[in-house]
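Researcher: I'm preparing a figure for a lab meeting and need a structural model of a single chain. I don't have an experimental structure, so a prediction will have to do for now. The sequence is pasted below. Please return the structure as tokens so I can convert it later.
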Amino acid sequence: MHKFLSWTAVILWMSLIFYLSHQPAAESSELSDGITEVIIQTIEKVAPSANLTVEDFSHIVRKSAHFTYYLVLAILVKYALERSGVHGGRNILIALLICILYAISDEVHQLFVPGRSGEIRDVIIDSTGAASGILIYLGITSVRSRVHRRQSH
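Model: Understood. Here is the structure written out token by token.
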């Protein structure tokens, strides 16, 4: 059951990425600009003299989203692979490969969406997010195993 649920989470997350990538440029920009406005309003509450604009942050928000989507995807894939009995270096390699291949397919998909383009730079950002997700996962599992060892002694 855990294996089924973990792969279901991977498929749902990939579906979300696909859905967001399938939005035409105008819709995608509207969504990211809305998120950017919320971020700017939050910053201006802390630093009222910041005087920021959506244009200042829009690119950063969009690229951070790429990074974050694939960071989460890598964590989900790594977990699903573990639940499927794939461990060690093989798990890491397969998780990273799945994420990179999905990032490439995502950028190719965007070539067919009105106003969107496929960017090699985005594949690199996505892959960096995936690698970071794997490192975070490894860090968390390492800490958890140390805590369990200490508790069992």
